[in-house]
Structures are given as C-alpha cells and as structure tokens.
C-alpha cells in the first residue's frame, strides 16, 4: 500500500486491495493493484535495502525494506509491472525465482499478489485496518470492493517536524516544513497519527481528531512506535489551535502540560487561565509564624499546589504564576502604597480647593458629612487604641482616610499603626458600630503583631475579640457619652 501510494504520487489514480482465504483455512491471498508509475527493474525486489528509487521524506516506503520483509513471510508471490512478471515460489522444497515477459498483456502500474501463512479469520482485521486509511483526494481506494472515502480535514496547520531520510548509507532525522491535517474521528474510534494517510499510532490525547502528517513520521526500527518526543512536538504544534475550544478538564490533561512547556509564553498563560483560572498563586510551605497560603486565600486567591501537577504544568506555573508569598506581599504593598499616597484627614479635605479636594469633599458628604465622618474616625481611633493598650508595648493609633476601592479594600493597617479607612466604602460609614464595622476594626488591629493572615493572626483576632467585648461592656458609658449619634436607633433609645 505504501509503494502504491508513492507510485501514484500527486496524480489521480486507483488502488484495489483485496484479501481472499484459501480452502483448508491455513493461508490468505493478498492482492494490491495500482495504476501508478510501475517498476523499472523487478530484479531489485530480490535484494534487501536495494532500490532504484530516490529517497524522499515525502515517500511512505522505506528504501528497499518493507516489500522484502513481506516477501520473506510469504509462501509465494507474484509481481507484474508493464510487460514484466516475477514469481517467487517453492519447488522441490526450495525457493525459486522465475522471470517472464508478457506478450500483449501489459499491466498499467503494478500488481502484487502474495500468499501469506495467515488463517482467513485475519481478513476481518485486515479489512478494518485498511478501511481506516485516509487516502488522498486524488486516489480512489477500494478494499475488498468497498470504496474508502476521503475525509475532509477540520483544520490544516503548517509546522516544522522531525522526519526520516536515508542519506549516505544511514538514516537521519532532519526537521522539515510540512502540513498537518486534523481530521474528525468517526464513531468511538481512537485518535491516531497518520503518515500521509497510513495509521501509525495513537495520538495520546482526548481530542476527537486524527493527525495526518504529510511527510514521513520518524519511527523505531520495528515501526511499532514513533520516535521518542515526537508526539510532544505534534501536541505542541496543535495546542494553540485547539486550546480555545477546550474545557478546563481537557486543558489539565498531562499531554497539554508537556506540550505547553515548550510553547510561546502567550500560549502558556492561556493554558494556565483556562486550566487553573484567574487570580491564582503557587503554594509555599509555612515560614515560621507566617502562613502565606492562608493569607492568599483570605484575599480571594486560588492556591495551586504544584507538587500535585505534572512536570509540564509545574514548569509553566513557576514561570508565570507568583507564589502566595509574592502575591500577598504585592497585595500588601499595593494597599500600603495606596493608603500612604492618597490618605487625608477631614480638615485637609475641606481646606484645599484642588480637584482632588473637591472629590474628597463629595465623598465625605456622600457618607454623612464632615461631622459624621470625623465622629466615626474618632471612635475608630479610640476603639483601636483601647485594643492596643492591652499589649505590653506603648503603641499609638492614628486614623486617616483614603480611596481604597481601587485595591478592593475597606481598610488597611500600616506598620506604624496608622489605620486607613476607605472613604469610598459605604458599610463602615452607615453602621460604624455594627457587626461588620467592629469586625473590620478588630481585624486591622490584629495586624499590629501579624502582617499576614496566618494561624497566629486568627488566634490574635480571637484574643482581640474578647478584649473588644470587655471594652464595650466596661466602657459603654464612654461610647454613649461621645458617640451616641453613631449608635443604631434602637440602641440610642435604650440608652436614654
């Protein structure tokens, strides 16, 4: 079949392949006839590795080897091309070769018939195999009388792939530019790699597509497996085209990771976003009292443990995804930079006349006005200071305002114990003594000892929650005296 397809080449042609079992059920005849260019010297068929053809990576046959191997297995064989005929047979217990010139009965192309030592039951397997071929559009292929239809590719890809060439008496594997056709799989068939229409091996992916490579596919000497690393190269070439159609579960398969490791950075980033999602960080071990994985989850990040990913995914994750420590540190730096760069007090906002001052005044008026905002800031300063006074060190809390919505924060705490409240976040201003507001103040004060949201931070929050309950119980008169306007209406009535 390889020789017939090579003999026809790019020209229109026809190949008829047939199998017939012999009486007694011990042998099967295989006949292949084509109308290609024919053979010039039938005597070459007797010598292994000898051929009259010029080798090319665009030929399926392997330079004087394949036909001879079949001939060694056959019990008898006949080859006719043009007016020449050669027969291989057994006479008196020995192999003989007979040459004949045909008179007036030339064969266009070549006809080969071999009697193989195969039980006729093998015919069903042979038919199934050859019906899976992908003949070129210009070739009409019949297998036991059934026409094998040409299948239209879903995609075509230009690529450089390793191939095989016989040069100076040895096989070499250069890279050549070629065309890859991706052809839909019919039924529940297995996706295969094809060498110019002839099946070679499984593609080893779950995409319902065959890969038809339009040049020789490098294989091992037994031709039962492709060269090491070849499938990864095929996967890498096809991945950018297939990726937009793939779901997360498909993207996380091992073949994608192995292929992506050598893809361009933009493809690697798309693999990560489709497979792992956005806003992700790589897990790191706990470092002393700091647990960066927990910190990252606190700020809404998805933590990926690269130890549980295959090598290819691990490599691209390390290239493009920050560790949880890096992500948390960056987040903290953004918060602190925003708080420090845009912080202000109520007096500053109402003293200046610039555009920024006007915006600040509008925001202050939107959440209740200058007096209300100042009262909330005073209470926050007093409350957080009461919490700080429970520590042995002497720390002083101060309060500022800033625009924190751009960094998706309500409040932040600096290393020098400056509490910055987001003037563009409504919750803390509408219910300054409500559950959420008090939780925010306790949370931020816990950063006095713990910059990160690890286990120690949460333990500290529990301590401060108890301390806050004691403060609000024992100092309730102070809160009523100074900030009764901030209390919910029912609490204010109860106080009276």
Q: What characteristics describe this protein?
A:
496 residues; alpha+beta; eight-stranded mixed beta sheet; 18 helices; 37% helix; rod-shaped
Any overview of this molecule?
This protein is an alpha+beta fold. About 35% of the residues lie in helices and about 25% in strands. The chain has 18 helices and 20 strands. It has helices spanning about 1-10, 65-75, 120-130, 230-240, 250, 255-260, 265-275, 290-300, 310-320, 325-340, 345-350, 355-365, 370-390, 425-430, 435-445, 455-475, 475-485, 490-495, and strands spanning about 15-20, 30-35, 75-80, 85-90, 95-100, 105-115, 140-145, 145-150, 155-160, 165, 170, 175-185, 190-195, 200, 210-215, 280, 300-305, 400, 410-415, 420. The strands form 5 sheets. An 8-stranded mixed beta sheet has the order 5-4-3-6-2-1-7-8, covered by helices on one side. A 5-stranded mixed beta sheet has the order 9-12-15-13-14, covered by helices on one side. The chain has a 3-stranded mixed beta sheet with strand order 18-20-19, with helices on both faces. Helix 6 crosses helix 9 (about 310-320), helix 7 crosses helix 9 (about 310-320) and helix 15 (about 435-445) packs across helix 16. The longest helix is centred in the C-terminal third of the chain and has 20 residues, at about 455-475. Mean pLDDT is about 90; it is low at about 490-495.
């Amino acid at each position: 079949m390889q020789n017939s397809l090579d003999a026809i080449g790019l020209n229109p042609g026809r190949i008829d392949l047939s199998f017939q079992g012999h009486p007694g059920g011990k042998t099967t005849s295989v006949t292949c006839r084509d109308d290609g260019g024919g053979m010039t010297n039938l005597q070459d068929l007797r010598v292994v590795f000898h051929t009259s053809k010029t080798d090319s990576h665009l030929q399926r046959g392997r330079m004087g080897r394949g036909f001879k191997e079949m001939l060694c297995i056959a019990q008898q064989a006949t080859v006719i091309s043009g007016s020449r005929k050669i027969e291989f047979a057994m006479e008196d217990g020995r192999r003989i070769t007979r040459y004949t010139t045909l008179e007036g009965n030339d064969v266009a192309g070549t006809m080969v018939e071999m009697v193989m030592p195969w039980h006729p039951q093998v015919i069903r397997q042979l038919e199934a195999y050859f019906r899976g071929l992908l003949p070129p559009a210009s070739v009409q292929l019949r297998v036991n009388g059934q026409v094998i239809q040409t299948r239209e590719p879903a995609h075509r890809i230009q690529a450089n792939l390793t191939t095989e060439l016989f040069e100076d008496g040895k096989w070499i594997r250069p890279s050549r530019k070629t065309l890859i056709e991706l052809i839909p799989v019919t039924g529940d068939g297995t996706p295969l790699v094809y060498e110019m229409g002839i099946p070679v091996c499984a593609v080893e992916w779950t995409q319902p597509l065959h890969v038809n490579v339009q040049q020789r596919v490098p294989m091992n000497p037994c031709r039962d497996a492709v060269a090491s690393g070849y499938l990864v190269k095929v996967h890498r070439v096809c991945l950018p085209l297939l990726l937009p159609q793939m779901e997360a579960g498909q993207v996380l398969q091992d073949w994608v990771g192995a292929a992506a490791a050598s893809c361009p950075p933009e493809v690697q980033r798309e693999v990560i976003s489709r497979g792992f999602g956005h806003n992700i960080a790589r897990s790191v071990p706990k470092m002393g009292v700091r647990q960066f994985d927990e910190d990252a989850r606190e700020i809404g990040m998805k933590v990926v443990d690269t130890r549980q990913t295959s090598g290819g995914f691990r490599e691209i994750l390390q290239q493009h995804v920050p560790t949880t420590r890096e992500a948390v540190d960056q987040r903290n730096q953004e918060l602190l930079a925003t708080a420090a760069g845009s912080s202000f007090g109520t007096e500053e906002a109402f003293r200046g006349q610039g555009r920024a001052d006007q915006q600040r005044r509008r925001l202050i008026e939107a959440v209740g006005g200058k007096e209300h905002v100042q009262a909330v800031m005073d209470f926050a300063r007093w409350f957080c200071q009461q919490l700080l006074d429970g520590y042995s060190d002497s720390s002083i809390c101060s309060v500022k305002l800033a625009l924190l919505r751009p960094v998706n924060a309500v409040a932040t705490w600096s290393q020098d114990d400056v509490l910055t409240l987001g003037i563009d976040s409504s919750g803390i201003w509408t219910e300054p003594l409500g559950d959420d507001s008090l939780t925010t103040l306790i949370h931020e004060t816990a950063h006095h000892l713990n910059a990160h949201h690890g286990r120690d931070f949460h333990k500290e929050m529990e301590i401060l929650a108890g301390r806050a309950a004691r403060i609000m119980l024992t100092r309730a008169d102070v809160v009523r005296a100074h900030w009764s306007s901030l209390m919910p209406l029912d609490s204010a009535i109860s106080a009276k």
